[in-house]
Design brief:
- α5 crosses α6 and α7 packs antiparallel against α8.
- The two termini are 28 Å apart.
- A hairpin with a 6-residue loop joins β11 and β12.
- Helix content is 32%, strand content 26%.
- The protein has 313 residues and is of the alpha/beta class.
- The longest helix is centred in the last third of the chain and has 19 residues.
- It contains ten helices and 14 strands.
- The strands form three sheets. A six-stranded parallel beta sheet has the order 1-4-3-2-5-6, with helices on both faces. Strands 9-10-13-12-11-14 form a six-stranded antiparallel β-barrel. Strands 7-8 form a two-stranded antiparallel ribbon.
- The mean pLDDT is 89.
- 32% of the residues are buried.
- It has two domains: 155 residues, HUPs (Rossmann fold), CATH 3.40.50.620; 120 residues, Beta Barrel (Elongation Factor Tu (Ef-tu), domain 3).
């Protein structure tokens, strides 16, 4: 997949395009990307996605912006796995937000990307004041030489699949429901870095996964599987949060204790798949109390995995 950090002033190749934030790549996004791939193959053109950085709400209401489900690196990897040929990352700033809808169509879609077919969600809005909608896009296409298609809502057990619904499920600790909406277990990927070695001191060494999110979509202690170390899915217990027992105002960390594993994996880029929540993050009166609880967490996680196949093994 080719990645572009902006839309060119003038396209060199026509495209079939979809537009959106695609945070989390849930079942609704996947249905849209499947349709994108079908149309691209039918026309013999690249399947392209235009997405935005930062999220529009991070620009206009940073204190109220939602927790990101995926980093840009994770999003791009998921897009590629769905058959996307080109990803255009548009810097979302006040200049782009203030671009009139008609100019957005002419400058970006027609001149910059030479679209032949555009697929958008039925609630997608664009341009200054969010006045651009599907009908405007369809009408413009008739005169500019492209067709437009609106994807309807995808439902899971009667619920509209959305990034917001995934965030709500994660925040509530319902990992199983989040997995149904995503079509896979929720995961966070990152590089294994050196930490404070507290887990090792307590008898439960952990892999510390680098976090680059400003807000966490979930916190607590979880049964997880880790991929990226080798070809296996490795079971373990993970803690993600601010470690209140160790102090106040600490940066959020993701720590994973892998079962029956003693290799050094610093520098590896791994993915942590969250399968089941064990408990919330608690503050303990002492490190001894924390150590005792970690032992119970590990035992409960082993019980969770007992008799369950771990994907990929």
């Amino acid at each position: 997949m080719l990645v572009f950090r902006k839309v060119p002033d003038r396209a060199t190749t026509p495209t079939v395009l979809t537009i959106g934030n695609f945070d989390g790549l849930h079942l609704g996004h996947r249905a849209m990307l499947e349709r994108l791939a079908v149309q691209a193959r039918a026309l013999g053109l690249p399947a392209a996605v235009m997405t935005f950085e930062p999220h529009p709400r991070e620009l206009f209401a940073p204190d109220q912006a939602p927790a990101r489900l995926t980093s840009m690196r994770e999003k791009l990897a998921l897009l590629e796995s769905c058959g996307v040929d080109r990803a255009y990352i548009c810097r979302f700033d006040r200049r782009l937000a203030g671009l009139p809808a008609a100019e957005f169509i002419d400058r970006i879609l027609v001149q910059g990307l030479a679209v032949r077919h555009v697929i958008i969600g039925d609630d997608f809005r664009f341009g200054q004041g969010r006045v651009g909608d599907f009908e405007m896009l369809r009408s413009a296409g008739q005169s500019c030489g492209f067709t437009a298609e609106a994807m309807h809502t995808v439902e899971c057990d009667g619920e509209r699949v959305s990034s917001s619904a995934v965030r709500e499920a994660l925040a509530a600790g319902d990992l199983e429901h989040a997995a149904r909406l995503l079509g896979r277990p929720y995961e966070i990927a990152g590089r294994v870095v050196h930490g404070g070695k507290i887990g090792r001191q307590l008898g439960f060494p952990t892999a510390n996964i680098q976090l680059k999110r400003k807000r966490l979509p979930l916190t607590g202690v979880f049964a997880v599987a880790v991929t990226g170390v080798d070809k296996r899915h490795l079971p373990g217990a993970a803690s993600i949060g601010v470690r209140p027992t160790l102090g106040q105002g600490l940066r959020p960390v993701l720590e994973v204790h892998l079962f029956d594993f003693d290799r050094e994996i610093y520098g590896a880029h791994v993915a942590v798949h969250f399968l089941h929540k064990l408990r919330d993050e608690w503050k303990f009166d002492s490190l001894d109390a924390l150590k005792a609880q970690i032992a119970r967490d590990v035992e409960n996680t082993r019980d969770y995995f007992a008799g369950k196949p771990i994907g990929g093994n």
